[in-house]
Amino acid sequence: MEIKMKSIDLSLYVITDENLLKGRNIADAVEKAVQGGATVVQYRAKNKNSRDMYTEAVVIKKICDRYKIPFIINDRVDIALAVNADGVHVGQNDLDVEVVRRIIGFDKILGLSTKTIKQVKEANNLPIDYIGFGSIFSTKTKNDAVKAGLEKLKEALKLSIQPVVAIGGINYDNVDQVLQTGCKNIAVVSAVFGSEDIYRNTKSLKEKLKSTMGFKIG
Predict the structure, then answer these.
(1) d(CA 80, CA 108)
(2) 100-123: buried (b, 16+ CB within 10 Å) or exposed (e) per residue?
(3) 12-213 architecture in CATH?
(4) Residues 131, 132, 133, 135, Cα dihedral to 10°
(5) Where are the beta strands (DSSP E) in 44-108?
């Protein structure tokens, strides 16, 4: 079955992190990121219980709806369905994407993490809307991150039939290197939530994207 590509602005894909946001108001943090220019928000919480995840996801969904940007849940298809999120993002060791697609239907967004060129090629035959590729640089937010690097990112961009979102250690100081590969989409965690001024962090990245890519985004 041919999957029609959805029109999604993936250019500044912001991912929450429970460690970076510990003790902080997640709703306030997400809203500041969205106000700063985030085009997608992914809720990722690896160590929270289902009840807490649901409670936080409901609040974040309302914020994303208010600003009309997609809200994606990492891994947890059940939570995504429970809050009517716009989509799900899964990894290589999560529930098979064919199964996820059957569960969420074809109107929802489905993303897949890839770490190798082999996985990028395999993803071309899967019913997904985009791939995440990385880690581009070293990162502390994922313990299992394997550094793929910029050259592999260039190769992934050539091979993938889906939009590619670069992820892993990307920040204001090195984002130029990523964009120079031709990649138009970045996923960030620490670069946004790693310090107090979330709005400024996000806005600075947004401005860098606009100036480097030379076209209007967001």
Answers:
(1) 10
(2) bbeebeeebbbbbbbbebeebeeb
(3) Alpha-Beta Barrel (3.20)
(4) -170
(5) 71-74, 87-90
Q: Where are the domains of the chain?
A: 12-213
Catalytic center residues: 44, 113, 142
Q: How big is the CA angle at 135 (ends 122 and 35), to the nearest 5 degrees?
A: 105
What is the C-alpha to C-alpha distance for residues 88 and 132, in angstroms, rounded to an integer?
12
What is the full per-residue pLDDT of the chain (218 aa) written as tens digits? 344 557 899 999 999 999 999 999 999 999 999 999 999 999 999 999 999 999 999 999 999 999 999 999 999 999 999 999 999 999 999 999 999 999 999 999 999 999 999 999 999 999 999 999 999 998 776 666 668 899 999 999 999 999 999 999 999 999 999 999 999 999 999 999 999 999 999 999 999 999 877 644 44
